[in-house]
């Protein structure tokens, strides 16, 4: 295996790490970009990984992960990781709006974004993620819904 191949596998493993215990949503394709995302309770994280990324494990905390890949089959069949400016918000079923602080994780050849937030039992959040690729691509949005269980 080449270093390039190993780095690609590492990037995939990191994205997969954050979505191991959840049913992953299908990626969303927008133009030449593919967005991979998932949302789940932080108590599903392995303790050593939660500690490494300074994430509190709790049934009452939700988390979303996001990565953006640009079509680039000469780099990888999955594309090339893209940095972006991310603005994330969500509303619950009663219409209460929340804005989320998003943190970038740069692992060299993998770039992804995470946010950790409080959730209540059975809370459903409608996420609206605004993405402005730093490679000059046109900004776009991804929306998804996730229900969180705390028991």
Description:
The structure is a single chain. The protein has helices spanning 3-18, 47-52, and strands spanning 28-30, 33-41, 61-70, 80-81, 84-92, 97-100, 103-106, 111-118, 124-133, 140-147. The strands form 2 sheets. Strands 1, 2, 3, 4, 7 and 8 form a 6-stranded antiparallel beta sheet that branches. A 4-stranded antiparallel beta sheet has the order 6-5-9-10, with no helix packed on it. The protein is 15% helix and 44% strand. It contains 2 helices and 10 strands. By secondary structure, it is mainly beta. It has a single domain, classed as Immunoglobulin-like. The termini are far apart.
Measured between the Cα atoms of the first and last residue, the distance is: 44 Å
Treating each run of at least 4 consecutive H or I residues as one helix, how many helices?
2
Major β-sheet annotation: 6 strands, antiparallel
Share of helical residues: 10-25%
- CATH topological fold name: Immunoglobulin-like
Overall mean pLDDT stands at 85
Question: Taking Cα atoms only, what radius of gyration do you get, to the nearest Å?
Answer: 15 Å
Strand percentage lies at 35-45%
Oligomer: single chain
